[in-house]
Structures are given as C-alpha cells and as structure tokens.
Amino acid sequence: MAHPSTYRPASGVAKWLDERLPVARVMHDQFMVYPTPRNLNYWWTFGGILTFMLVAQIVTGVVLAMHYIPAEDRAFDSVERIMRDVNWGWLLRYAHAVGASMFFLAVYVHTFRGLYYGSYKAPREVLWILGVLILLLMIATAFMGYSLPWGQMSFWAVTVITNLFSSLDAVIPGLGTTLVQWIWGGFSVGGPTLNRLYSLHYLFPFIIAGVVGLHIWALHVPGNNNPTGINVKSPAETVPFHPYYSIKDGFALVMFLLLFGALLFYAPNLLGHADNYIPANPLQTPPHIVPEWYFLPFYAILRAVPDKLLGVVTLLASIGVLFFVPWLDTSKVRSTSYRPIYKWFFWAFVVTCIALGYLGSQAPDGWYLFFGRVFTIYYFAFFLVVMPVLGKFERPRRLPGSITEAVLGHEASAAKPREREAVA
Amino acid sequence: MASHENSLDPIVLDDEDLSRRDVILIAAGGFTAIGTAAALWPLLDQMNPDASTLSLATTEVDISPIEVGQAITVMWRGKPIFIRHRTAQEIEQAKATPLDDLIDPLARNVNLPDDAPATDENRAVPEREPLLVMIGICTHLGCIPIGQAPGQYKGEYGGWFCPCHGSQYDTAGRVRIGPAPQNMYIPPYSFTSDTKIKIG
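Structure tokens for the assembled complex are given below, as produced in the milestone run.
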C-alpha cells in the first residue's frame, strides 16, 4: 500500500547507501512496516509459503543439476546414482519431487483464496493476471522437470504432451507435424528433446522468480485484500507486516512443512508413479498412463472432448479463462462471504475441480467419461455463465461499515477510535 | 524486542510482559537457526566425493613389465601416478645430491613421518630403490610435468620438467628449480607381491 516512507538510516554508511541505492529503505517500507489489514486469516499465509517453496525448489534443483546428466542413455542412471551414491542425494531428490507437489498444493489453495475473496477485482486485476501467468509457468516447469528422470512415465508424458501440438494439423495441414518435430529436434522424442527440456527447466524458475517480484510489486501498490473485501479505511485498520504477519506466515509455514516432512520422510513416492522407475522405452507405452496429481483436472478436461483439436483448445481455455476472471465477475462485492447465492456455486466449483482430478486418474470410458463431461461443462459455466450473470441479479448481504466493525462488531468499532486516541 | 516507539499498535504499547516475549523470540530464533543449519548441511555435503567415488580409492598396478629406464603413468583417484624404473646412474645421481641443495628438504612421503628428510632412500622403498612411485602433479599449480616418455625433455637434473611455469625435478622427483615450492608427493602405496603394488 502506498504509504510515506518511515525509514531512517541508522548509520553514516546506511545513509550513504540510501542516497545511492535505497535497498534497505525498500525492505523496511515494504516488508517491515508495510501496513497490512489487521483481519487477514490463515488463507493469506500461502503467499509466503509459495515464496519459500520457490526458493526451496530452486536451491534443491541447482544442487541436483550438479549430479544429473541430461543425456538419453545416462539420465536414468544418473538419477539412480543421485538416489544411491551422492551424499544426501535421496533427500535432495525426494525434497525436489515432493516439493513440486507441495508447491502446487499451495498454489491451488492460494488461487482458490483469491477466487473466494474476490482478490482479482479492481484495483488488483494486474496482480491476478501475473498470478495466472506464474501458474502457467509453473505448469510448464513441472512438466519439463518430470521428463528429466527419463523413466517410462517421463518419456510417455513428453510424447503425449508434445503431441498435443500435432492437433494443429487440423488447422493447417503439416503445421502441427512441423512444430512437433521442431520441439523434438527429431522424428520422435529422444536425446535432443531431453537436452532442451533440461535447459528450459533450469531457466523457467528464474523467470517465475522475476514474475513473482512483479506479483509482489503489484500487490504492494493497492495493498492486501482482506476477508471482508472492504477497503482499508484508516491506518488503524492495519498492522505493520513485521512482526504481525511475519510471525503468522512463519507459523503457517511450519505447519505446512510438517505435512511436507511427513510426505518427504514417510511416503516420498506416494504421489509418484512406480512406472517411472523403469527406464524409458520408446517401443512400449505403459498400460495406464496418467499425469501427476496436480495436472489431473486438466487431463480430465482434455479427455472429455471427443475431438483432438477441440480437446487441446479446451485444455488451454481451462487455464486461459482465468486471465479474464476480473472482467467476467460482474458483482461489485469482493468477498464471497457476503454473496449468499454465489457461495453455493463457488463451493460447487471447488468440488468440480476435485472431481475432475479424480476422474482424470480413471480410464476415460463409461460413467467416468460421462461425469468428466458434466464437470467440464460446469467448470466453464462457472466462469462464463455464473460469474457474469449472477453478479447482476444476486442481492448481497449487508456489508459491514469497516474492517474494524466486521472484526469487533458495531458498538466496539464506534468506541475503539476514541480509546485509540487516548492511548496515542 | 519489538519496536515500541514506531509501533502503531496499542497492544504492543500496553504490553508489560516483555521478558516473556523475549524468551519466545529467542527460542523461536534459536530453533530457526538450528533448523536452517541442519537443512544447509545436506546442501553442502552433497558436493563431497560420493560413495562411488570413494570406492575407487585404491588401484593395483603390475610393475613387472616396466623395464629399466622406462616409466609408466597410471590413474589413481583421477590423478596421474608416475612409476619410473630408474637406472643405477639415476639412483646414484639422486643419492649424491646434498640435502642442502634442495628447495624442499622434506620427503613428502605419506608412508613416512611428516618430518622425514628428502633423501633418495625416503623417496623410494628400501631394497626396491629402482622403483620411484609419485603423484605426477607439479606442486606449483597442478600441471603434469613432462619427462615420462622417452625423448621428452627431462630438465637439467634428468627428472621431470613442468611445461607450465618451468619447474624442474630431479631423478627422485625433488624440485630443484622453482617456482614449485615442494617435491612431488609420494602416494600411499605398498608392495602386495614382488611384482605388484597397491596405491591408496
């Protein structure tokens, strides 16, 4: 939130630096005294958790890259060597693989938080769009990282996903094939493909880090949304970020790391697929191929459409539609807490995403396919019908007059300002 | 420890239970520091030689095919090991050199005490003096000296010559002309039979 700088250099050196590169001033103003709404709940701690996970993935990834060999005939063995011989290699690789799952878990919670509390609405549209961009980059990075162990699931995931582009043959004959060969660097998935996936897998996290910087910048211009969705009306409705939210975020992070640790140390392969411990074999596809859990809803959407090109278009649209959410939602009220009808549609949407995740893991026929289609239709209807239409007709609950009133009740909030003045 | 002067919040201003807060803060900070250090160790230790590298720590060499005057180079832990079957003249030359003429007076032989003088006896194994086994790495900046192959320049002292910065070694592998500061190192090795040595 725009606020006058309160930084005072504590020494001559600090003053000298401040006049040349005010790094300490920015840190102080944006991460220490930064005014944050006093009513943020634990759903707001996932931004900090995600920052931690990004750093954790980059650090473990850089370290794994010191031992990994991106060559067709050596990649699988180099990963096994990491698991067996490299000091702490098992820990570092499992931390990176389970870390990817935890990263997605956190980013989905973070996204649903934004959807529930209307954090995408004016003046936070750019903040939201940057978030969707980060999600897209994460999806690309995770997909490329999954290819690197060069096991059966890696190989066939790359084959299937890169073949999505061949659907463009339906638009211009030959375009899709040309594009896919360009991506592969050959006539099939092979060594050149692995090399470029590795190169880009190393690059993308740093692009993500850059966009995260912009995301935080775009957050700090309008300031945090809050569970009421009402604008902050006075400085008294905020608290300094440190120590109030640094501690709250820290506590939430510790809880999150307990779950991370439980998976990492007791069930590191729970979310993976055993087939990926079989070296890649271009002559045999595993009988049951599914993506990692965090892609399952999108996979279900892809398979719900019986046409190749339209399936791919629908898949891309399922994420692309998120970019337009700030303008699709016509309601003036941000927080779903004050939208009695929309609330039902929102939770139905959450259930839909979970159901699509389950259906994505099942063979696409019979009732599974039928329900896959039903939920796919609702997925899009939520954005394209419910959001624009309901906002115009729904009568929201009465909004509290201020954050203080929402937290302390009407009488207390009337008494509070005077009390505050007396103390000050 | 919370900053009372700049805080906008009345709860902090009113707080009289400061020592309790300090204890919590120090405890939390302490645990964070310990946890960070514990998490940091695997990230650093992963760069140390791993189990498969350590398992390559010994090399056995058959020395019977090496004729008098010949030298071979073998690999041990990724390093070149010079093994030269010295002529009687070369041994005599090395033995005749006064220790005062040496740049480095120490034997640099890990099989002997650290302070063993750099006599020819201490550079080789008694009774097996013709055989000189040493790590063929110049002690200046790690280049590999020439002088192993027949016809290669062996320097003024008939041993080895480092092409990088011109250090010269004698027939016992002792540095005679700088800039190298030390004699070439003798690796840990032992004779497992009359014709075999085990390095490492």
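The helical segments of chain B are 10-14, 18-45, 51-54, 88-96, 120-123. The mean pLDDT of chain B is 85. Further analysis is deferred to the final report.
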